[in-house]
User: Which sequence fits this backbone?
């Protein structure tokens, strides 16, 4: 057993109202600069819908994720090393800008400076890529008001797998929102797809990052990621992706998208897992068994044997305590109401979702029934097999049974809590009907409905003794590369003309002129080494030349 820790997220889709606050704050923090105008590390999609980029779930087209060979081994769907080497200069299996959207702004200056006339001036849309007039035809969530319509639903890769009757009936059922970030997978196919080894998974918390110094812009990672959450910065020629806001995580703060979420639908916490089981779990033959296979890799943080193995692996006691208090463990393993997004991609995603129940209640109420009565709710979940099938296509590789079980638990919680709120006697049979106890129902209700900030976000801070190692890894991630999010404010002549502002994150400081080694170096050793690949040719960084020996004579110093 090889115990490792993974920062993880669960989103409760019953609470998402599609306000896009998470997307906007993430945009301002990470991609509000030239080169990545079209990139949204966090985006909110409408379901049914085509998603962003369009039809990204169609892996027959985009070749993302892993496939299982006849020998039981995994290989990237886009091809192994030999194929990548042969096509390294031509990789056509990527979304084009039209599959994302052409970012735009408006000619506001014309509104201000237009001369007086009979007609009202109009601010024309201008492309942020070319600066020319453009026609707005698509955006990051164009499905928002159109999802469920025939034109949009026909392009949904998940809905396309269902029958025509199912599609027609489903369009009448409901619409829900699906926020997405990088999944920070246990078995990331983007890491395996990168020819230069620029994408890596951090050992201490499992966050997947891109080393900007090593990235050569091959863009194989864009193809390899089945969720299409890696973007190419056309200004710097580098790949970029969601960083799980690691500078905030390292000081115990939640991600930007979680902090600013209006619906309080996101939960953050630590999961312990057995790294030795991941490869075997991802390679199980039956795609519908992948959900349970991934759960089998998670380790109980309350188990004395797991605690001992975690300590032996160097995991600190406060991290073990955080894993014991983790809302992610409760939602996935204790209450069993969270599901992974597309486990059939075999990447072992670590951003999970609680499927929406509210539309089921709405349908009951619209038909004149009590939407909060247990028998009615259970019957509705069984009768409305069409939305369950769609949810299964998203979260359980098409298996409806786990989805039904989750919806029944959520329905039972509603009924259980309503009896308490109305002053009626507690009925333990409600919880027993879904394999839970009344106390577990109370705990699940508290976590999903009224949990405080510190209960929703249980994040252990990085240790001071690891600061130098984290600093070196942070520098490798290079938030301060030219055009990167660490560059700071704009000047009077464009984005990069201002004074660079370093990223400040308390326990490590990434500054533009810092030169680091290729590998983690202790502070006493760092001064004596320099990474020539990251040296911009200006100045004389420490470590470029051997230290001067002041004890030598002047003649010795002058001698060639």
Assistant:
């Amino acid at each position: 057993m090889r115990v490792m820790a993974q920062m993880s997220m669960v989103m409760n889709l019953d609470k998402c109202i599609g306000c896009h606050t998470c997307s906007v704050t993430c945009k301002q923090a990470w991609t509000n600069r030239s080169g990545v105008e079209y990139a949204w590390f966090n985006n909110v999609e409408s379901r049914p819908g085509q998603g962003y980029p369009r039809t990204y779930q169609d892996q027959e087209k985009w070749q993302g994720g892993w496939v299982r060979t006849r020998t039981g081994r995994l290989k990237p769907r886009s091809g192994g090393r030999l194929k990548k080497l042969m096509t390294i200069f031509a990789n056509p299996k990527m979304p084009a800008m039209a599959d994302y959207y052409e970012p735009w702004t408006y000619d506001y200056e014309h509104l201000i400076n237009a001369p007086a006339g009979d007609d009202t001036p109009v601010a024309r849309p201008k492309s942020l890529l070319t600066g020319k007039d453009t026609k707005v035809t698509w955006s990051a969530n164009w499905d928002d008001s159109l999802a469920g319509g025939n034109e949009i639903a026909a392009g949904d890769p998940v809905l396309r797998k269902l029958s025509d009757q199912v599609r027609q009936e489903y369009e009448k059922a409901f619409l829900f929102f699906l926020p997405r970030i990088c999944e920070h997978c246990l078995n990331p196919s983007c890491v395996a797809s990168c020819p230069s080894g620029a994408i890596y998974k951090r050992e201490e918390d499992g966050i997947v990052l891109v080393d900007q110094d090593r990235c050569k812009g091959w863009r194989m990672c864009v193809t390899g990621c089945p969720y299409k959450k890696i973007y190419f910065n056309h200004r710097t020629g580098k790949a970029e992706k969601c960083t799980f806001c690691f500078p905030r995580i390292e000081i115990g703060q939640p991600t930007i998208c979680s902090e600013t979420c209006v619906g309080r639908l996101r939960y953050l916490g630590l999961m312990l897992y057995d790294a030795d089981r991941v490869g075997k779990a991802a390679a199980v033959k039956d795609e519908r068994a992948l959900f349970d296979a991934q759960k089998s890799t998670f380790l109980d943080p309350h188990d004395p044997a797991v605690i001992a193995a975690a300590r032996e692996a160097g995991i600190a006691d406060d991290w073990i305590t955080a894993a014991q208090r983790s809302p992610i463990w409760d939602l996935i393993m204790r209450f069993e109401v969270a599901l992974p997004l597309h486990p059939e991609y075999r990447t072992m995603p670590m951003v999970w979702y609680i499927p929406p129940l509210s539309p089921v209640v709405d349908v009951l109420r619209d038909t004149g029934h009590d939407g909060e009565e247990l028998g009615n709710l259970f019957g509705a979940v069984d009768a409305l097999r069409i939305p369950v099938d769609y949810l299964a296509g998203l979260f359980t590789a098409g298996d409806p049974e786990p989805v039904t079980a989750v919806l029944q638990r959520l329905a039972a919680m509603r009924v259980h809590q309503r009896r308490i709120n109305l002053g009626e006697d507690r009925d333990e049979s409600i919880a027993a009907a879904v394999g839970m106890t009344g106390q577990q129902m109370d705990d699940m209700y508290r976590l999903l409905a009224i949990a405080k900030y510190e209960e929703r976000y249980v994040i252990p801070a990085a240790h001071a003794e690891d600061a130098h190692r984290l600093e070196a890894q942070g520098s490798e991630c290079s938030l301060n590369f030219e055009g990167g999010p660490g560059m700071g404010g704009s000047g009077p002549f464009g984005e990069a003309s201002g004074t660079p502002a370093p990223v400040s994150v308390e326990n490590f400081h990434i500054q533009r002129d810092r030169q680091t080694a290729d590998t983690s170096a202790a502070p006493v050793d760092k001064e004596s080494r320099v990474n020539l690949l990251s040296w911009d040719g200006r100045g004389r960084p420490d470590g470029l030349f051997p230290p001067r020996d002041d004890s030598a004579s002047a003649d010795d110093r002058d001698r060639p």
In short: The longest helix spans residues 400-421. DSSP finds 27 helices and 16 strands in the chain. The longest strand covers residues 3-12.
